[in-house]
Amino acid sequence: MLRCCVFLAALILAGFTTFEAQADRRVALVIGNSEYREIPALKNPDKDAEDVSKTFRLAGFEVFAAKDLTRLQFEEQFRNYLAAADGADLAVVYYSGHGFQIGGENFLIPVDASLKDAADMEVQAIKVDDILQQLRSKSKIQMIILDACRNNPFPRKDYWLRDQLIVAGGTGLAQVSGSQNTLIAFATEPGAVAYDGSGDLSPFSSSFSRRALAPNQEIRSVMAAVRRDVVKATNGKQVPWENSSLIDDVVLMREAEPPALPPADAQQSQQTAERGIQAAAAAEAIGNRDIGVPVGVGPVPLKLDFPAKDASISMKLASYPATGTLSLPDRVLPPQSNLMAAEVDNLRYEPQVGSAAPVEVGLQIRVGNVSKQATVKLSPNVDPCDQAAGEPLDLQGIASGKLPSEIGSEAVESCGAAVKAYPDIARFRYELGRALLASGRIDEARQAIQDAADKGHVRAVYELGYIAASGIGAAPDITKANSFYAQASDKGDPYAMTAWGRALFDGVGVQRDTGKGLDLLLKAAAMGHVGAMNDLALIFKQGRNGVPADPARALAFLKAGIDRQEAYSMAILGLSPKQNTPTLAVCKPKVVTKVITKVKIIRTPPPEAPPPTITTPKDPIGPVPWRGSSGDHDHPQSRGDNSDG
């Protein structure tokens, strides 16, 4: 069958970083979706993704690898990846699976998507432009590779996008434009299909994986070589295409310098036994160790205290950690790297955000022709401050997060210690501010949050807006709050998108802009913010500010909130989840089915009554189980304005 492969690479030199990027920090998210539940499985994506993942690891990238992701799993993986990509030199997303266009917008399709109803595209699919915007706000240079099926295998052909019902495109993905210093490339012309090929890999992915590893090749030269390969492999039926506005060179694979050779030794044969003892002693000294490594603070020195400094001794990375990256201060180390004895004590490891499992690194210590193996265990750990005062859905956070009412008294001490230990990590200053705010120490909290914002923590900027809007320690100032919300929204924060979107949609403290407000709420919902989902549900249920009522569309967003265990999505539907219940019964598939059946009465116009008003609960229903909850504050700017938000 025809294989829909598309390659979209965006390389954009500009962006907001939270701290000075480490040299050559390059991060890749690689996803292969093959096992679709509602449509036939695809042959190549898992193999393509596996091959490309190896390619990026060999090129020295930190690689987040996943396959067969549902919508919720994609949200979680993408948030972990964004936290790692914050401040990176190069951020890459590779996706293989179903994808198609609607109204000039390209979408990626998770494996659990059904796309049966007109509202399903917004709550089940992933918009490529949203991915690009997030990467632009995080990293200096971005690349997105989409090896996505072009045909639309779903039964429905029209879907809601913003305020219009749009007919899906027939074939291919839409052309995507980028800003300065951007390369956008397709496996074939926009709107055309590409081929699966006869092997395990698609012609384009196979060529890209091979050509990308050519040492010191600039990306435009790589793409030219890929184009030649694909044209030849398909007898001219498929011609990769790209649009470039690059002003800087981008090299994926830098040629490694050959390791220094030990000096010649005329008496080496007589010294074999001595060197064997030396190698064994060095292996024993650093092997069988378990080193704790904090997550989210950058590369951490391993301090192996390698006992041998002889220039004749070298080390090879015989096995690489399954996640995270090893590096030296001047370079990232890909698998099979060689180090000299003097470099070993500078070896560093950066754990992968979201992965708590211990990993191992195998070291081969060589002295002349003698070698010995050593294994070091690396155990990632989350700082007590992140555990005590991290916030849900913080795209620069590394923990599942807590609501303010869940922050204990120990958080102030834990976060104070973290700020002292890592003064350059803005996240800890923000979390200290949250802990102080929960303890009622308003002035200290405001200063800590301001410090975090000054250091580039985006959620802290939103928090300053919340403080201004709520009048904590001062008179409420909605105009000032909106200014903070707009700043944080521009940097991709879903809390801020929701708050700023509400203000714009209803004209609260700002001139009304319904279209932009609706778009921001949709973007926040796409990032997993259930407060935005609830707002959208009420907008579509009632029909407001020129947006037509559509009960089915409202129901789609409420169902999305329920999928994320959101209490107020359930409340809108008239449900009453019990407190202190570990797993909400309504979230079990069997119960959800019954709920949906009951709420179909939403299609019948209800008796006239004042519209319901959503408020964020003061006492949340159980702990937040994952980084994807709604906002953790009320939103004062929307109270009393009949916005229902």
From TrEMBL:
Q: Which Pfam families match?
A: Peptidase_C14, Sel1, TPR_16
Q: Which organism is it from?
A: Mesorhizobium atlanticum
Its recorded name reads Caspase family p20 domain-containing protein
Molecular function (GO) terms for this protein are: cysteine-type endopeptidase activity
Which InterPro entries does its entry note? Caspase-like_dom_sf (IPR029030), Caspase-related_regulators (IPR052039), Pept_C14_caspase (IPR011600), Pept_C14_p20 (IPR001309), Sel1-like (IPR006597), TPR-like_helical_dom_sf (IPR011990)
Q: Output compositional bias ranges, type Basic and acidic residues.
A: 630-645
| One example of a Gene Ontology biological process annotation | proteolysis
Q: List the keywords (alphabetical).
A: Signal
Q: Does the keyword Protease apply?
A: no
Where are stretches of biased composition, namely Pro residues? 604-614
The answer, when asked if Signal is one of the entry's keywords, is yes
Q: Lineage of this protein's species?
A: Bacteria, Pseudomonadati, Pseudomonadota, Alphaproteobacteria, Hyphomicrobiales
Name the PANTHER family for this protein: MUCOSA ASSOCIATED LYMPHOID TISSUE LYMPHOMA TRANSLOCATION PROTEIN 1/PARACASPASE, MUCOSA-ASSOCIATED LYMPHOID TISSUE LYMPHOMA TRANSLOCATION PROTEIN 1
Source superkingdom: Bacteria
**Annotated signal peptide:** 1-23
Span of domain Caspase family p20: 24-153
Region annotation Disordered: residue ranges?
603-645
